[in-house]
Amino acid sequence: MTSAGSGLTLLQTCALSLLVFTGASQFALVGALAAGGGPFTAAAGAFFLGVRNAFYGLRLSQLLALPRAVRPFAAQWVIDETTAVSLAQPGRRSARLGFVVTGLSLYVLWNVTTLLGALGAEAIGDTAAWGLDAAGPAVFLALLAPMLRSGTERMVAGLAVLLGLGLLPVLPAGVPVLVAALAAPVVLWARGRRRASRGDAGEGEL
Amino acid sequence: MNIWIAILVTAVGCYAVKLAGLLVPAGVLERPLVRRLAALLPVALLAALTAQQTFADGRVLVLDARAVGVAAAAVALVLRAPFLVVVGAAVVVTAGVRALGG
């Protein structure tokens, strides 16, 4: 829906879902391209959003104990949902089953809805007239909301908003988002320093 | 052509990090600081993207119907509405404000 509204063809929209298959990265790429970002700055933002999947893979590889030959095929399905389902299972057998069932059904469902959404958006035409340009930020907000658990997350989000908006008029399209990503290490560093100066090495928010 | 380049670069990059997680021996990425940073990066990126797509018109900051729509989505999120309702609220409210000449 959001991607067909920003200059991608039907084929490009579906290829994106089939090949990338990690929602936040897809929306970010489309948003950056629509804003006039270059292909590499747009891809860099999408890539950083996908980095968390490496940490899911790390936990899944211990849990599922997949043979090395199977791993390249399983990798595409390493996403938020499959990790959540697999980790919630009591044993290895059910974890493997949960991973395959969740991965397969989400992969099919996600790509079918992408196709239907892209066809629908082509039929609608001017997306802005219908308020569909607000769908993109609403999707990001819905993905972001469950992550804002503690003060650290909220500080990172706040700083990233300031950087993203403040730098928008002065830097080329797509670059302010990448600079805003620096909010994460900056807040971590500031928190670490504050904790160190208080002198407690115990279980803090970090 | 640029769009295809962006799609392919993203696809290769995103697949590579997924595979890396499965192949890399535990311990290399298992350090607490690295884990914490990986959890916070999406927070920073999503927050910046939300703000930009709400308030940016090209490289200029504006306050228009989208802001009202995204505010409606935020209210829906606080009320724990399902994903599609959240997005639907943003679309409907934005369209409504535009129809009223906002």
Provide a short characterization of the protein structure:
The complex is a heterodimer of chains A (206) and B (102). Chain A has 11 helices and no strands.
Approximate shape of chain B: elongated
Shape estimate of chain A: flat
Strand segment tally of chain B:
2
Largest sheet of chain B: 2 strands, antiparallel
The residue-averaged pLDDT of chain A reads: 85
Largest interface: A-B, 93 and 72 residues
Count of alpha/pi helices of chain A: 11
Beta percentage of chain B is under 5%
- Relative helix content of chain A: 55-70%
Structural class of chain B: mainly alpha
Instruction: Report the radius of gyration of chain A as a whole number of Å.
Output: 19 Å
In which order are the strands of the major sheet of chain B placed? 1-2
For the record, give the distance between the C-alpha atoms at the N and C termini of chain A, rounded to a whole number.
Answer: 38 Å
InterPro entries (chain B): Brnchd-chn_aa_trnsp_AzlD
Keywords (chain B): Membrane, Transmembrane, Transmembrane helix
Pfam families (chain B): AzlD (PF05437)
Protein name (chain B): AzlD domain-containing protein
Topology of helices and strands:
The complex is a heterodimer of chains A (206) and B (102).
Chain A: H1 10-20, H2 23-34, H3 39-50, H4 52-64, H5 71-74, H6 80-87, H7 92-124, H8 135-144, H9 151-166, H10 175-180, H11 183-198
Helix pairs in contact in A: 1-7, 2-3, 4-6, 6-7, 9-11
Chain B: H1 2-23, H2 32-55, E1 56-57, E2 60-61, H3 65-78, H4 83-99
Antiparallel strand pairs in B: 1-2
